Each structure stands twice: as structure tokens, then as C-alpha cells.
């Protein structure tokens, strides 16, 4: 890992990989902006019932969080097992808490 | 450079060195002194409480001041004494145990310490600025919302700043343990103290944000006129209790798990045996951490959550007794048939086992909802949590200090004084708190500043107060011991206890780069394996080369100072406009320091290979 820190002499293979990586980043970035626009349009247009709007917004949000984790935070790359464990652990702890509070409030 | 460290240096040089250091070993010293100072302060507050309760209708302190002392005793002991002392041990030991030259983020390590110190100082400034917080260490609303004066504001800002430091420290240890283990040290070869530090750091990472959020809401309510907790304006007072205990329950595991690791190391070393059931110990720790996140509402049985919620949380709580029991039996089995040496560190450990087991047993008692309605808010609960926190955490800190003092300071603590500390503290502890179980069962409510005559509470309280003075005596002896050792204690050998783990394979105290060459780890108890099957010392995993070291920096101190000043500004902007100068000035200092850190590249420095070669082995 430490050998790759010098950016001046990148070998062609690495260069190709960097290029592909940048493409993926840009595509993801564009998709995220599109998703955000969709979210705003869906609400602003007011054509749909809130029963449909809310699940759509939630799905869009989950997909964006996934993009954030897997593309921008590199969870898709090798050697990210421990960060993945941590992130899923954190999600689990948060879900438990929310479930607990939900059960207490509405049971 | 490193060999010149033995030369006499001026006081100013040493002070500047400690103010700017990013070396984990020196930050461990800082945490120890800072945490030790607040431990003594919290102890004084405890003595004041016990003197006040010595006889019925005593008026040693006024009722209002008693509330302040009570609140500050809890807050100080949990956030400003126990946590930093644990961080002291982690900083001193973990990088050495996993074979690293420093933590992953040395700069952040220093920042974490200074944030804790300035947070603690801010909290304690309240004594001189119109009264300390008086709403209990849990700061329950609506009491903490309606509490007059600025006491609770100091609680909010002080804990917010100190909490940020803790969060930084936890993340730092996570990154260190994930990325910086020596070659060959797989997760299942990590010493148990490193494991428990790892799990504790996970708990810190997931639990502290709940406190941060809760404190922010309280801050907005008190200082900026919001109404998150104001029922009259549509808020909800119970949310504070949920947020506080979603943090607060993992917090008690943050306080105890690292010490479980310490006891595992101490028992294994002084029984001359590999830890019994190492794998079970690791998974028991993970299980405790996992369960620790779904039991918070057992602090709220009397709130009225309903029978279903209470039952679920009651069951989950009792489940924690299982992995804890696994640990207790594993420690006993480690000692079984071992060649046991009993010294101060081992005495604290042996004292811990029955004490903590009593605390665990009363824990299961209060976990039962029906019984808890009787115990709730009585001295029974006070006795319970002092048995687990003092019997577990404080005993563990003392064990760790006796065990690792040679590695931290290069001197061995005096054994005779160590034993005197243990016996007086141990007897004093049980005198103070055992009787409180019965005081609680007899109906003495906690947090009250006095009680009436003729209720059979007199004798129990007198015994309790006598015990508190025994504990104080023990602590004073320990302080004398530390000073005596620093002045004329015996110089420690590199490996005074015939240790088993990596930290005993290097000098006491270690060179500032810890390991000249990364060691090759061949199994659990790496040094012991080499002692039994190898040359008695660790095989290097790399050729001798330049060592990359981080530069010292004064910026962490400045950032924390900025937040301290801004904290005062936040508190006083409610009354005075000039406080905005403090607020913006402090923020400017902090943000300016952050900007300086971001813009100026700091690549550290290298210790050249030939200098390392010149040093005698």
C-alpha cells in the first residue's frame, strides 16, 4: 500500500484502473444527483399520494447511502472487511435502538 | 537523540514536551495524571457525602450544596476519572502489545487528551462560577431544564467537550488495532487486553453519539430556547432518559470491559498459564458488547414503559449474566493448577472476582422488574453499581497500574505499600458499600441529603462512613507509593514479571519508537512462545531501516483551549452580550488551529538507520 503513494510514476495497469475508477465515481455521482432531483420533483409535483411518495423517498435514500458506502467510501474494494463490519454493526445498533423505541411507543 | 533522554532537562523543556507530545507513552502519562487528579477530586466529594450522612439530620453541607457534590461525584468519577484512567492504560499498553510504533493517529491521540482535560476543567470551573450542576450525573429532565443558575450548562458543555475527546480516542484505537498489528499477529493471536480495548472502542464509537445528541438537545433547550424536552410546548421529557441510557448502558461496559482484559493478562501472567478458554473469552466479550446495546431501558423500569417492554429488557439484561459468568469461570480455571504468584496486581485481581460477582448477583436482582420496583431509587442500587464499578473498574485500574507501572515509568511500585493500599481499600470498600444493600432494603432513598433519627439507619451509615475513610487512606498510600517510587524506587527490568506478551520484550520504559524492528508473532502469548520454543526473544520481521515518526504539535492544545473558551461563551451568552466575544473568539482559535493543521503539511521525520545501529542493544 505504501508503495503506491507516489503519484508520479504510475504504471499503465494502475493508470487504466484509476481511469475506470474515476468513471465509476462520476457515474455514481451523476446518478446521485439524478436521484435527488427525482426526489424533489416527486414531492414538488404533488401528483402522488403520500402513501407512495414516502416509500419512494426511502428507497432512493437507501440506494444513495449504498452508493456512498460502496463507491465513495470504497466498501466494494478488497481489504475493506473490517470497515464493512463496523458500518453494518453501526447500522444494526441504530436499527435495534429504533426498533426498541418503536416497540415501546406503539406496542 | 533517544539516548540523550537520560540527561537532566529543565522544567520548561519537560513541560513543553508534554504539552506538544504525540507519543502514546507520554499521552498515557498525561491521561494518568489528569484522570488521577479528577479521581482524587471525586474522592473528596465522596468523603463530603459520607460525612454529611454520618449522623441523622446532619448539616455538614447544605441541601443544595449536597446535590452539587452528589452530581459532581458521579459525573467526575465516570467521565473524568474512570474513562481517562482506562485511556491511560490503553495508551500505555495497546501499541506495545500489538507491536506498533504508535497509534494510528498520534495527533488525534493528543487532541483527545486535551479535549478531555479542558472539558473536565470547564465542568469544574462551575464550582467557582455560581455553583456546580445539581441535577444528578444522569441530568434527567425536567429537573436539568429547570435547574436555576449555570450549573447544568457547565455539565452540558464540559461533557460535550470531554465526550468529543473520548470519541476521538475510541476511533483512534479502532484504527490502530485494525491496521497496525505486527506481522503474524492475527486477530485470534491478540492479547486479551488488546481485544477488550478493541471491543470497548466499538462501544465508544456507537454509544457516545447518543450522548452527544442528548447533550445538544439539552443545550438548545437551556441556552437557545428550544423545547425538545418541554412538555408544555409539545416536547417529550422521556426522550432524554432514552438517549442518556442508550449511551449510558454501553458506557458501563466501556468502563468494565478493558479491565476484564487487564485481569485476564494479570491472571495469566501470575499463574504461569495460557489464559483458559481464550476463544470463549473473546466471544464472551463480543457478546457482552452486543447485548449491552439492547438493555438500556432496564434503567427506566419505573418510568412506566409497560409490562411488555419491561419484560423484554429484563430478559435481555439477565442474558448478560451468561457471558460474564463464562469469564469468571475462565479466570478461575486459568488459576486452577497454575503456579500462582500473589503480589499487589494479583491481589487486586483476586479481590475483584468475589466483589464483582456480588455486584453481578445484585445486578440480576435489580434486572427483575417486579423486584426492581422495591429496589428502585434506594441505596440498594447505590450499593449495586459501586460493587461493579469500584469492584470492577477501580480494582482493575489499580491492578493494571501495579502490573504495567514498570513499563510506563521504568520503576516497580513498592510491594509493601501496594499490599497496604489493597487491604485498606478492599476492607474499606466492603465496609462502605455492603451495608448499603441493607440500608436500601430498609428503605433509605438515594440522593437524599439527610435522614431522620429513630429509623434504624444510623448504625449502617456510620459503618459506611468509616469504610469510606479506609478507602481514602488506601488511595493516599497509593499516591505516596507513586511518589516514593519515582524518587527512589527500584529500577525495573525489561521483563520484571516473566511476562507473556509483546510489551515485555522491549525496554522499560520503551524507546520512543517502541520497536527497532517489527517483531514476528508466532502465536498467542508471543513472548512466551519464544521463551519456551525459541531464543527467548522475538525474531524481527523486517531488516533494520529508517523509522518514520510523527512530529510533536501544539495545535491539539490550542484547539481544545479554543473549545474551552467557546464553551464559556455559549454558557454566558444567555445573560451577557460580551460573552459572544468568548464564543466567537474561542471558535476562531479552534477553527484557525484546524486550518493551520490542514494547510501545513506535516510529514513527520525519520530516525536514520545508522543512528539506530549505533544504539547499544
Structure description:
The complex is a heterodimer of chains A (107) and B (617). Helices cover 78% and strands 0% of the residues of chain A. Chain A has helices at residues 12-45, 50-72, 81-106. Chain B has 617 residues and is an all-alpha fold. Chain B has a single domain (28-553, 602-614), classed as Cytochrome C Oxidase, Chain A, CATH 1.20.210. In chain B, 66% of the residues lie in helices and 1% in strands. In chain B, strands 1-2 form a two-stranded antiparallel ribbon. In chain B, α15 packs antiparallel against α16 (458-488). The longest helix of chain B has 35 residues, at 63-97. In chain B, 53% of the residues are buried. Chain A binds chain B through residues 82, 86, 89-90, 93, 96-97, 100-101, 103-104, 107, and chain B through 174, 178, 202, 205-206, 210, 242, 246, 293-294, 296-297, 305-306, 308-309, 312.
Quickly describe the structure.
The complex is a heterodimer of chains A (107) and B (617). By secondary structure, chain A is an all-alpha fold. Helices cover 78% and strands 0% of the residues of chain A.
Tell me the CATH superfamily of chain B. Cytochrome c oxidase-like, subunit I domain
Low-confidence stretches of chain B: 1-6
Q: Which class do the helix and strand fractions of chain B yield? A: mainly alpha
Mean pLDDT score of chain B, rounded? 93
Strand order of the largest sheet of chain B: 1-2
User: What is the gyration radius of chain A calculated from CA atoms?
Assistant: 19 Å
How many helices of chain A in DSSP terms?
3
**Largest sheet geometry of chain B:** 2 strands, antiparallel
Number of helices of chain B: 20
Query: Percentage of helical residues of chain A?
Result: over 70%
Helix vs. strand class of chain A: mainly alpha
Strand-residue fraction of chain B?
Answer: under 5%
The CATH topology name of chain B reads Cytochrome C Oxidase, Chain A
Computed over alpha carbons, the radius of gyration of chain B is 24 Å
Largest interface (CB within 8 Å) is between: A-B, 12 and 17 residues
Amino acid at each position: 500500500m505504501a508503495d503506491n503513494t507516489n503519484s508520479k510514476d504510475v504504471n499503465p495497469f494502475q493508470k487504466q484502473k484509476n481511469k475506470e475508477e474515476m468513471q465509476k465515481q462520476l457515474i455514481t455521482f451523476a446518478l446521485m444527483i439524478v436521484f435527488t432531483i427525482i426526489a424533489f420533483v416527486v414531492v414538488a409535483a404533488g401528483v402522488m399520494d403520500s402513501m407512495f411518495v414516502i416509500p419512494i423517498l426511502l428507497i432512493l435514500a437507501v440506494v444513495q447511502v449504498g452508493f456512498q458506502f460502496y463507491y465513495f467510501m470504497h466498501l466494494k474494494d478488497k481489504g475493506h472487511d473490517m470497515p464493512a463490519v463496523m458500518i453494518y454493526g453501526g447500522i444494526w445498533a441504530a436499527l435495534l435502538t429504533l426498533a426498541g423505541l418503536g416497540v415501546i411507543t406503539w406496542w | 537523540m533517544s539516548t540523550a533522554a537520560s540527561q537532566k532537562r529543565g522544567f520548561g523543556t519537560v513541560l513543553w514536551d508534554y504539552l506538544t507530545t504525540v507519543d502514546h507513552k507520554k499521552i498515557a502519562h498525561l491521561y494518568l495524571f489528569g484522570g488521577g487528579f479528577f479521581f482524587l477530586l471525586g474522592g473528596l466529594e465522596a468523603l463530603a457525602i459520607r460525612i454529611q450522612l454520618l449522623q441523622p439530620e446532619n448539616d455538614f453541607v447544605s441541601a443544595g450544596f449536597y446535590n452539587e457534590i452528589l452530581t459532581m461525584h458521579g459525573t467526575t468519577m465516570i467521565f473524568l476519572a474512570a474513562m481517562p484512567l482506562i485511556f491511560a492504560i490503553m495508551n500505555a499498553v495497546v501499541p506495545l502489545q500489538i507491536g506498533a510504533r504508535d497509534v494510528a493517529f498520534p495527533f488525534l491521540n493528543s487532541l483527545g487528551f486535551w479535549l478531555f482535560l479542558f472539558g473536565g476543567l470547564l465542568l469544574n470551573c462551575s464550582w467557582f462560577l455560581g455553583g456546580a450542576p445539581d441535577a444528578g450525573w444522569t441530568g434527567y429532565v425536567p429537573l436539568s431544564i429547570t435547574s436555576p443558575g449555570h450549573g447544568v450548562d457547565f455539565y452540558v458543555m464540559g461533557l460535550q467537550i470531554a465526550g468529543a475527546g473520548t470519541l476521538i480516542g475510541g476511533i483512534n484505537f479502532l484504527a490502530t488495532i485494525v491496521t497496525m498489528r505486527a506481522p503474524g499477529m492475527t486477530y485470534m493471536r491478540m492479547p486479551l487486553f488488546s481485544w477488550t480495548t478493541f471491543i470497548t472502542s466499538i462501544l465508544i464509537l456507537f454509544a457516545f453519539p447518543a450522548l452527544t445528541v442528548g447533550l445538544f438537545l439539552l443545550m438548545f433547550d437551556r441556552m437557545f430556547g428550544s423545547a425538545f424536552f418541554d412538555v408544555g410546548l409539545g416536547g417529550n421529557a422521556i426522550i432524554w432518559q432514552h438517549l442518556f441510557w442508550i449511551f449510558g448502558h454501553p458506557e458501563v461496559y466501556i468502563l468494565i470491559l478493558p479491565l476484564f482484559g487487564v485481569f485476564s493478562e494479570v491472571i495469566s501472567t501470575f499463574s504461569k498459564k495460557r489464559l483458559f478458554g481464550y476463544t470463549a473469552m473473546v466471544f464472551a466479550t463480543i457478546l457482552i458488547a452486543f447485548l449491552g446495546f439492547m438493555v438500556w431501558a432496564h434503567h427506566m423500569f419505573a418510568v412506566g414503559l409497560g409490562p411488555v417492554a419491561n419484560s423484554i429488557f429484563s430478559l435481555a439484561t439477565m442474558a448478560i449474566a451468561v457471558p460474564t459468568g463464562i469469564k469468571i469461570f475462565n479466570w478461575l480455571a486459568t488459576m486452577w493448577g497454575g503456579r500462582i504468584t500473589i503480589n499487589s496486581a494479583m491481589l487486586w485481581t483476586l479481590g475483584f472476582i468475589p466483589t464483582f460477582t456480588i455486584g453481578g448477583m445484585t445486578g440480576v436482582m435489580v434486572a427483575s422488574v417486579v423486584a426492581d420496583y422495591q429496589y428502585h431509587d434506594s441505596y440498594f442500587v447505590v450499593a449495586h453499581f459501586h460493587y461493579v464499578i469500584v469492584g470492577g473498574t477501580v480494582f482493575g485500574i489499580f491492578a493494571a497500574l501495579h502490573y504495567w507501572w514498570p513499563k510506563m515509568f521504568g520503576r516497580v511500585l513498592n510491594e509493601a505499600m501496594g499490599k497496604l493500599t489493597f487491604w485498606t481499600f478492599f476492607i474499606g470498600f466492603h465496609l462502605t458499600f455492603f451495608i448499603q444493600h441493607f440500608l436500601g432494603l430498609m428503605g433509605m432513598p438515594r440522593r437524599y441529603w439527610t435522614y431522620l433519627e429513630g429509623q434504624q439507619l444510623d448504625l449502617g451509615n456510620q459503618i459506611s462512613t468509616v469504610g469510606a475513610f479506609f478507602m481514602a487512606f488506601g488511595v493516599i498510600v497509593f499516591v505516596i507509593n507513586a511518589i516514593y517510587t519515582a524518587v527512589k524506587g527500584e529500577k525495573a527490568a525489561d521483563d520484571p514479571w516473566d511476562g507473556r506478551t509483546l510489551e515485555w520484550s522491549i525496554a522499560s520504559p520503551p524507546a520512543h519508537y517502541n520497536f527497532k524492528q517489527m517483531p514476528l508473532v508466532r502465536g498467542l502469548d508471543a513472548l512466551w512462545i519464544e521463551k519456551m520454543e525459541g531464543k527467548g526473544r522475538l525474531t524481527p520481521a523486517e531488516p533494520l531501516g529508517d523509522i518514520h515518526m510523527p512530529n510533536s504539535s501544539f495545535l491539539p492544545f490550542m484547539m481544545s483551549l479554543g473549545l474551552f473558551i467557546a464553551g464559556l461563551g455559549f454558557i454566558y451568552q444567555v445573560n451577557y452580550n460580551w460573552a459572544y466575544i468568548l464564543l466567537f473568539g474561542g471558535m476562531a482559535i479552534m477553527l484557525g488551529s484546524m486550518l493551520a493543521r490542514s494547510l501545513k503539511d506535516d510529514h513527520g521525520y525519520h530516525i536514520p538507520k545508522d543512528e539506530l545501529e549505533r544504539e547499544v542493544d
